[in-house]
Amino acid sequence: MRWHGRCPTSMKAISRENIYTIPNWLTASRLVAAPFVGYCILHDHYAWALGLFAYAGITDLLDGWIARRWNLGTVVGTVIDPMADKILMTVLTVALATKGALPFWLAGLILGRDFALGIAAIYYRWISLPPPKTMARYWDFSLPSAEVRPTTISKYNTALQLGLMGLTTVAPVVPSLDLGTPLGVMQYVVAVTTVWSGASYVYSKDAVKILSQPQQGEAEENEQTKK
Predict the structure, then answer these.
(1) What are 158-162's contacts with CB under 8 Å, separation 24+?
(2) What is the C-alpha separation between 144 and 138, in angstroms, rounded?
(3) Least buried of 10, 19, 159, 203, by fewest C-beta within 10 Å?
(4) What CATH number is given to the structural domain containing 113?
(5) What pTM does this model have?
(6) Chain segment 79-105, per-residue pLDDT in tens
(7) Secondary structure letter of residue 212 according to DSSP
């Protein structure tokens, strides 16, 4: 069979991006480090946990700076960067709550919000993936389909959550410091910002940008192809 005229949109080459950049490698290293942080906390190796936590914070700042400085930002980076933060946060929350260093009600609030956002991310990735929709293409992150844009309050919330987890991890390392009152205040502040940031994703129109929406011309072309 020979195609006549212009090819349908589904047959066009889909643009890919280079995901093997230094910022993305640094982000990937944070993903790898996260379970080791949890392991160290559960086995009372708080100094090691604090060191890995510091590494995660430094690389988080570094990958963003490199991406901006040398224009190495990628769509997949906008997805895996907050993903790395959330995985680290989940590991820290579960580990610290298990050790009794974090209240269960706050752990449930943090994990519940992140679980809801995770389900939303899976949904948007699927509906925005250009056809054909297959699991192989779904996990091929060189095919950008949706871009996540954290809301302002979400950025503050992430910083506050990381600050709370860091301070909670410091407490056993430096027992001479009385951190009871600061930790108590931060726990309630984080609870408020966690709820607030979760609601911001629901009401913000710019939090998720679909990249694969067909243009008007392409839509008309598809209609002509069907006829």
Answers:
(1) 158/82, 158/85, 158/89, 160/186, 160/189, 160/190, 160/193, 161/89, 161/110, 161/190, 161/193, 161/194, 162/57, 162/85, 162/88, 162/89
(2) 10
(3) 203
(4) 1.20.120
(5) 0.72
(6) 788 888 889 999 999 999 999 999 999
(7) -
What was the pLDDT predicted at 3? 41
Domain enclosing residue 187, as ranges: 18-217+221-225
User: Helix 46-69 and helix 75-98: axis angle, to 10°?
Assistant: 170
Q: 137 burial class (0-12, 13-18, 19+ CB within 10 angstroms)?
A: middle
Q: What percent of the chain has pLDDT over 90?
A: 39
Question: Can you tell me which residue has the tokens 């490698």?
Answer: 25
Residue 123, classed as helix, strand or coil, is helix
pLDDT in tens, 38-47: 999 999 999 9
Compare 20 and 88 and report the one with higher pLDDT. Answer: 88
Report yes or no on 122 lying in a domain.
Answer: yes
Q: What single-letter DSSP state applies at residue 208?
A: E
Task: Identify the residue whose tokens are 């390392």.
Answer: 173
Q: Number of structural domains, the chain?
A: 1
Contact 221, 9 (CB under 8 A): yes
| Residue 158 tokens, joined | 């992430």
CA terminus-to-terminus distance, the chain: 18
Concatenating the DSSP letter of every residue in 1-58 gives ----SSPPGGGSPPP------HHHHHHHHHHHHHHHHHHHHHTT-HHHHHHHHHHHHH
Name the band, by pLDDT with cuts 50, 70 and 90, for residue 127.
Answer: confident
Q: Is residue 181 part of a domain?
A: yes
